[in-house]
Specification:
The protein contains 1 helix and 5 strands. With about 140 residues, it is mainly beta. β3 (about 75-85) and β4 form a beta hairpin.
Length: about 140
């Protein structure tokens, strides 16, 4: 747990959903896999928007769960394209919980996901060059 208040979320709000009782473990906390799934979903949305076509997840870097998510919390997932290569891209993804019945917002985890752009046959395809200020790798 951090002693200082959380900074502002990094990136654009991409997915927002509520944590429900069916998504909990035996302790009443939301499963980490549920949170990770929402993050993957948000990254996929950001990837499709950036590439103009299908993308698949190929890697996740260093996900650390900072705080639990509880039933009733609103999970807000933010995305920011970190870098773009020839056929792949790295997207920084943060998950924040807006606590149930309050306006308190806390960062619960973040990670960098790598996505590959694919064509209709599932083969890697070239990502169009960025015109939005992201850096190439």
């Amino acid at each position: 747990m951090q002693d200082q208040p959380d900074p502002q979320p990094r990136g654009e709000l991409t997915v927002r959903t509520i944590a429900m009782p069916a998504d909990t473990n035996a302790n009443g906390d939301i499963f980490g896999g549920w949170v990770m799934s929402r993050m993957d979903q948000a990254g996929g949305i950001a990837g499709v928007e950036r590439t103009g076509g299908r993308v698949v997840t190929v890697a996740v870097e260093a996900m650390n769960f900072l705080r639990p998510v509880k039933v009733g919390d609103v999970l807000c997932v933010y995305t920011e394209v970190a870098s773009i290569g020839r056929t792949s891209m790295r997207i920084h993804i943060e998950a924040w919980a807006r606590r149930f019945m309050t306006k308190v917002r806390e960062k619960v985890t973040d990670a960098t996901f790598t996505f590959v752009a694919i064509d209709d046959d599932g083969k890697p395809r070239v990502i169009p060059r960025p015109d939005d200020g992201t850096r190439d790798v």
